[in-house]
UniProtKB/TrEMBL annotation:
Database matches in Pfam families: IspD
The protein's name in its UniProt record: 2-C-methyl-D-erythritol 4-phosphate cytidylyltransferase
Entry's family note: Belongs to the IspD/TarI cytidylyltransferase family. IspD subfamily.
UniProt pathway annotation: Isoprenoid biosynthesis; isopentenyl diphosphate biosynthesis via DXP pathway; isopentenyl diphosphate from 1-deoxy-D-xylulose 5-phosphate: step 2/6
A GO molecular-function annotation: 2-C-methyl-D-erythritol 4-phosphate cytidylyltransferase activity
Coiled-coil regions, chain positions: none
Keywords of this entry: Isoprene biosynthesis, Nucleotidyltransferase, Transferase
Role played: Catalyzes the formation of 4-diphosphocytidyl-2-C-methyl-D-erythritol from CTP and 2-C-methyl-D-erythritol 4-phosphate (MEP).
InterPro entries, A to Z: IspD, IspD/TarI, IspD/TarI_cytidylyltransf_bact, ISPD_synthase_CS, Nucleotide-diphossugar_trans
Gene3D superfamilies: Spore Coat Polysaccharide Biosynthesis Protein SpsA, Chain A (3.90.550.10)
Superkingdom of source: Bacteria
């Protein structure tokens, strides 16, 4: 059996949170958000190693105040991120060379659960690429540049993609290399493999698997921890 490796991408600044500190280091119940994210993968027996991608000026802080403090010694390496998420993912991929399955996850999604992680591995082994997510609860509108509605997609065909997004290692690495050589920009890893004609299987995530992006999300996160 090959290794299953998690890449936790946490190099972004998160400007929508409107704080001077990276959102991953804001506290939920007296522990930083990134702690809960790392803990979910750290405690999962199907994950062989974890690579954390951080901004250069936050690496030492994270080592001292998160990894060492909470004894998260399954984390193989901390990698300095790039200027974009895409660059950060590529750096993370290079750090897990030799993995069979790689799970790419947002550092600010602390409520990912065991089933989501293990289903990601299972469906990657079957299909080569997959991503978790949920059906849209809302009707979605497509609007024009003037702000008018021009189309209403069928809600049953819409899927709100979350992370982890999971891939056979060679597939995602080669796709990213091609995108880099062709100056293709993408904010999502599934977009990269789809561009090179590989289908992505979409499996059920959880409405609890939220990304902490705004101050309101912090309030929701606190309430969710109260109910665990």
């Amino acid at each position: 059996m090959g290794r299953n490796c998690a890449i936790i991408v946490a190099a972004g600044k998160g400007t929508r949170m409107k704080t001077n500190i990276n959102k991953q280091f804001l506290n939920l119940k007296d522990k930083p958000i990134i702690y809960y994210t790392l803990k979910a993968f750290y405690e999962n027996e199907s994950i062989d190693e974890i690579v954390l991608v951080l901004a250069k000026d936050e690496i030492e802080y994270c080592k001292k105040h998160v990894i060492q403090k909470y004894n998260l010694n399954k984390i193989k390496l901390i990698v300095e991120g790039g200027d974009t998420r895409q660059e950060s993912v590529i750096k993370g991929l290079k750090a897990v060379e030799g993995c069979e399955v790689v799970l790419i996850h947002d550092g600010a999604r602390p409520f990912v659960d065991k089933n989501i992680i293990e289903d990601g591995i299972k469906y990657t082994e079957l299909y080569g690429a997959c991503a978790c997510g949920v059906k849209s609860k809302d009707t979605i509108k497509v609007k024009d540049k003037k702000g008018f509605s021009i189309h209403t997609p069928d809600r049953d065909t819409l899927f709100c993609v979350q992370t982890p997004q999971c891939f056979k290692y060679n597939l995602i690495l080669e796709s990213h290399k091609k995108a880099l050589s062709e100056n293709v920009e993408a904010t999502d890893d599934t977009m990269i493999v789809e561009r090179y004609n590989h289908k992505v299987y979409l499996y059920e995530g959880s409405y609890k698997n939220i990304k902490i992006t705004t101050p309101d999300d912090l309030v929701i996160g606190e309430k969710m921890l109260d109910n665990l």
